[in-house]
Design brief:
GO molecular function, one term: endoplasmic reticulum signal peptide binding
Subcellular location: Cytoplasm; Endoplasmic reticulum
Strand order of the largest sheet: 3-2-4-1-5-6-7-8
Strand content: 5-15%
GO biological process, one term: SRP-dependent cotranslational protein targeting to membrane, translocation
Largest sheet: 8 strands, mixed
Order of helices and strands: HHHHEHEHEHEHEHEHEEHHHHHHHHHHH
Number of strands: 8
Number of domains: 3
CATH class of the largest domain: Alpha Beta
Number of helices: 21
Bound molecules: guanosine-5'-diphosphate, magnesium ion
Distance between the termini: 22 Å
Protein name: Signal recognition particle 54 kDa protein
Shape: globular
Family: Belongs to the GTP-binding SRP family. SRP54 subfamily.
Length: 439
């Protein structure tokens, strides 16, 4: 879906003249992509109408301006559709919280419990897993053992309410700050399932009940969340299998319509294939394919004269571009608050496409790179061939920096592309900024 939407926007951006025809064609393609993802028909129709209302082409002059206004309107409308508009309970590190996971069988509860635990463990929490189902204990035990997360459960005890109660009690005593309770689910929304959930909730007194849902159900997500909400006080939703399923965005928008906050999405079977759900980056990165970091550097080059650009962006590279050089440059950029300074140099029209948050987002991206690079050994930093960094090294860097393996791999890929551009530009005056720009 992200592909077809960003393609439609890109094609529109490439058109020499932006007229009603070009805009309608772009909107048609986006609408078709959303409908194919099972987004509610009325939502899609409203989105089209709203965009057309915001963008009155005849009142606008200049091609650049029109493009930006249309893109911004698309961004805003997609955010509006997917915004659950309500924050959820957030556990605090160091304070014991009980989090209970509910959902239908096969939705991904057990996997998601483990991902949620792992995600927090990487950030320095002390999570623990409790299985309140004899049948599912083995699966939880295996995942927990692999990720080195303490677990509790029973193969034989039939009183699952008691098992849940004992598990929570034990981990509170052991000063765990995130006690995650996995529950069983049946194939459909039976009364006995809801009764069971209710009893486990009574026994464990969860601070937050998370409803786990498979994204492949699309619009039907609306009814499913409502049904569960009637029986337990669902405080947040996690949508799984956003990787392989065409109906993912349909499920997201349906959940948003119930005003239930979506807090994470699952994007694969592995323990780190898990993302915080935040509407703006989701729309920007996944649906519109914007790369904030390169886009930002791009804009600096577009509008700020070379000699006025921050020193760190124009420093010529005389040596091989090692990870250490990128690391040092990024550290400087963060230290001096240069990002804010650069932003203040940009004309408003350049930053308005992604309204608030852009600056923070870029800063966060650079910060995360710096954290990961900080976890690398001297040898790794001075290495100018990223291919030589092995899988086990990547895992170590991820563990030490508390970032997912996929993110470390992404950083190395970015760096690899930088070095490729660098070698192409051999001999010419090159700068880090031009390299970063080419990401
Ligand atoms: P439960 O019955 O609700 O506990 O579901 P499980 O945790 O056992 O998951 C059911 C299946 O879905 C397993 O094969 C998981 O590996 C798979 N699964 C869970 N989350 C995801 C996800 O985000 N993406 C993909 N592709 N598969 C997932
Ligand atoms: Mg399970």
């Amino acid at each position: 879906l992200g592909g077809s939407i960003s393609l439609a926007v890109e094609q529109m951006s490439n058109a020499t003249i932006i007229d009603d025809n070009v805009m309608n064609q772009c909107l048609n393609e986006i609408s078709r992509a959303l409908l194919q993802s099972d987004v509610n028909f009325k939502l899609v129709r409203d989105m089209e109408t709203n965009i057309k209302k915001i963008v009155n082409l005849h009142d606008l002059s200049g091609g650049h301006n029109k493009r930006r206004i249309i893109q911004k309107a698309i961004f805003t409308e997609l955010c509006r559709i997917l915004d659950p508009g309500k924050p959820s309970f957030t556990p605090k590190k160091g304070q014991a919280s009980v989090i209970m996971f509910v959902g239908l069988q096969g939705s991904g509860k057990t996997t998601t419990c483990a991902k949620y635990a792992y995600y927090h463990q990487m950030k320095g929490w002390k999570p623990a897993l409790v299985s309140s189902r004899a049948g599912a204990f083995d699966q939880l035990k295996q995942i927990a053992t692999k990720a080195k997360i303490p677990f509790y459960g029973s193969y034989t005890e039939s009183d699952l309410v008691r098992v849940a109660f004992e598990g929570v009690k034990r981990f509170k005593k052991e000063n765990c700050d995130l006690i995650i309770v996995d529950t069983g689910g049946h194939h459909n929304q039976e009364a006995s399932l809801f009764e069971e959930m209710h009893q486990v909730a009574e026994a464990t007194k969860p601070d937050l009940v998370i409803f786990v849902m498979d994204s492949s159900i699309g619009q039907a997500a609306f009814d499913q969340v409502q049904a569960f909400k009637q029986s337990v006080s669902v405080g947040a939703v996690i949508i799984t299998k956003m990787d392989g399923h065409a109906k993912g965005v349909g499920a997201l928008s349906a959940v948003a319509a119930t005003k239930s906050p979506v807090i994470f999405i699952g994007i694969g079977e592995d323990k780190d294939e898990f993302e915080v759900f935040d509407v703006k980056p989701f729309v920007g990165r996944r649906l519109l394919g914007m790369d904030y970091l390169s886009g930002f550097v791009d804009k600096i080059h577009e509008v700020v004269p070379m000699d006025q650009q921050p020193e760190v962006l124009q420093k010529p590279l005389q040596r091989n571009l090692t990870l250490r050089i990128v690391y040092e440059q990024f550290q400087k950029l963060l230290k001096r608050g240069s990002i804010g300074q650069v932003f203040s140099m940009l004309p408003r029209s350049c930053v308005e496409l992604v309204p608030e948050g852009l600056e923070k987002d870029i800063e966060a991206a650079i910060e995360s790179y710096v954290t990961m690079m900080g976890a690398m050994t001297n040898e790794e930093l001075d290495n100018s061939d990223p291919k030589l960094i092995t899988e086990s090294q990547i895992e170590r860097i991820a563990l030490a920096s508390g970032r997912p393996v996929t993110e470390v791999m992404g950083m190395l890929q970015h760096y690899k592309r930088l070095t490729e551009v660098k070698s192409k530009m051999k001999g010419e005056m090159s700068s880090l900024s031009q390299n970063v720009n080419a990401q």
